[in-house]
Specification:
Elements (H helix, E strand, L loop, with lengths): L5 E7 L4 E11 L5 E9 L5 E7 L2 H17 L3 E2 L10
Antiparallel strand pairs: 1-2, 1-5, 2-3, 3-4
């Protein structure tokens, strides 16, 4: 299981919009797999939500579903200098 987060950003200066959305798969203490979502304005700590899944395949499917939904709303993969959700 890969622990590196997928970081997406949506930046629109005309609308004063600078958002990040990070998704990662992490093991839980009880053998489940957690889909960890972090989101907020770039430069802030933001918010976090965790969803537990019984196995890696269902967690991966949930991560891909969330990623597709965000990309449809205009989020793109963040470049190295675009944002860091861990500011």
């Amino acid at each position: 299981m890969e622990n590196r987060p997928l970081v997406l950003s949506r930046i629109d200066p005309a609308r004063n919009m600078a958002r990040f959305y990070a998704l990662s798969l992490e093991p839980s203490l009880f053998g489940d797999v957690a889909v960890v979502r972090r989101w907020g304005r770039i430069g802030t700590r933001g918010h976090q939500a965790i969803a537990l899944h019984a196995d890696v395949s269902s967690a991966q499917a949930a991560l891909e579903r969330l990623s597709r939904a965000k990309r449809r709303r205009g989020y793109r993969t963040a470049g190295e200098m675009d944002c860091s959700p861990f500011a």
